[in-house]
Amino acid sequence: MNGAVDALTLQGFPAATDWSIARTLYCLEGLNGFGYQSRGINSPYLYGGSNLYGPPEARGGKFVRDHVFDPTFVDAQLGVATILKTLMELDPSVELGALRSLSQAEETLTQRAPSVEQSLNNLRADPTLVAHGRNGSRPRDAISEFHQQSRSADNRLIFVSYASPDKDRVVKYYDYLVSIGYDVWIDCRRLKAGQNWDFEIKRALNRAAIIIVFISNQSVDRRGYAQREIKIALDKAEEKLIDDIYVIPVLLNDDAPLPDQIRGIHIVKASDPSCEEQIKDAICHQLERLGENILQAQQSANIRWSRSTHREVWDGLPGYEIEYQVLSFSSDQYSHISEITDVINRTFRR
Fold it and tell me: Do 167 and 264 share a domain, yes or no?
């Protein structure tokens, strides 16, 4: 139940003021996609199990997977409109058409804020959050505070790129960095059975604050994912400040040729007895710099902010898949600044 409430909250439903049947069904259909409209078919996501979808009264058909429509398939699942109609018949308190003010929606979210803060405490928020619903406090304000206090682990991820023949030589560096407390991502240790490895690797690359690239004769001579990772890392490095440490090249073989794009970056040689220490010092320097810069800016402005990543996939024609980041704001001095977060969320979810 709580999961369903949170999902609807993230979609902006509590802030809606128009709860007419037409608007409600439009928003609900948008969760699944509008691909059925172009085919002149009532969406089974809404009307499954009613006389508005499927023979003998209406046309059937279903998108059986992304971008693949089967006109002979009839979805046997009940649609949300069918379920809503049944609930309204069984319980007169369930109704559509009533307008709800934004202030009422905010009050509902404010009431739920302490329980969200308590949930974050259950996830071992450190330091512990006080379940007081501060700053007008919508649940995402509590989540923003949690991100700030925990220093947002996503922004401190270290990604390890290597060629598969070098796995045994590289894993020891992973083990070393993990042993001294860093959050390190390497495919052979972090991928789980059944995960989409291509998606997970790209996601980790996008999240990473630092990328360690292990270069050897094998990695230079091979065409494959390691080369793609290096290219992605170097492309993203161009977006950083000139004095940022984003890519740390580690030379596993002293005679391995360096890619042209890395020649201007100071490398660490595995043959150097201080190799591990040099890697640790570079990571420590950059992460401290990132944390100090962000913290100083937030303290100076008396505004806290954090980022959350959202991923959406819509079925239908044309379908799409998108991943984006949204900023959340809170402040003890500017009580209404969290409304910026509301505007951003509503803009993305229109």
Answer: yes
